């Protein structure tokens, strides 16, 4: 399965999929599988940490001032960004709950991420968001089935 995923990543020209798959293959074939539970338990947190670090670099290196932040936050795009952040974190929390209750759904998220990368030229930074959107849509689908 990992080799197939590697090939999909190569065809899709997705460095993220190729790199992640190669790392997992190296871990698997070097008998370091003891790392799998650690990656499964803490990998998401580590990924989110690096994502947050990359987002905060302009603030840390002085490219963005407190004045810029204030002026942008009170503008219409800034207010929409605050609202978007609040909605996104709420959906992420619902996604995390869904992943705990229904962990096999992760395969659908991976497939959806791959399809989004290949056909929509997306960037797979939101597995929790994908789960959150799925959690949001599930009750709607259940209601439509009745």
Automatic annotation (TrEMBL):
GO cellular component: plasma membrane
Family recorded in the similarity comment: Belongs to the UPF0756 family.
Ranges that cross the membrane: 43-62, 69-93, 105-138
Protein name: UPF0756 membrane protein Pmgp_02482
Keyword Cell membrane: yes
Domain of life: Bacteria
Compartment(s) where it occurs, according to its Swiss-Prot or TrEMBL record: Cell membrane
Pfam families: DUF441
Membrane protein topology class: Multi-pass membrane protein
Entry-linked InterPro entries: UPF0756_TM
Keywords recorded for this protein, A-Z: Cell membrane, Membrane, Transmembrane, Transmembrane helix
The keyword Membrane belongs to this UniProt entry's keyword annotation: yes
């Amino acid at each position: 399965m990992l080799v197939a995923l590697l090939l999909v990543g190569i065809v899709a020209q997705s460095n993220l999929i190729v790199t992640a798959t190669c790392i997992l293959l190296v871990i698997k074939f070097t008998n370091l599988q003891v790392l799998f539970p650690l990656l499964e338990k803490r990998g998401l947190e580590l990924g989110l940490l690096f994502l947050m670090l990359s987002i905060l670099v302009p603030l840390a290196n002085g490219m963005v001032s407190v004045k810029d932040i204030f002026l942008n936050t009170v503008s219409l795009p800034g207010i929409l960004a605050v609202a978007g952040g609040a909605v996104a974190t709420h959906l992420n929390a619902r996604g995390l709950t869904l992943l705990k209750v229904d962990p096999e759904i992760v395969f659908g998220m991976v497939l959806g991420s791959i399809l989004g990368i290949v056909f929509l030229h997306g960037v797979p930074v939101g597995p929790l968001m994908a789960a959150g959107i799925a959690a949001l849509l599930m009750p709607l689908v259940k209601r439509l089935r009745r």
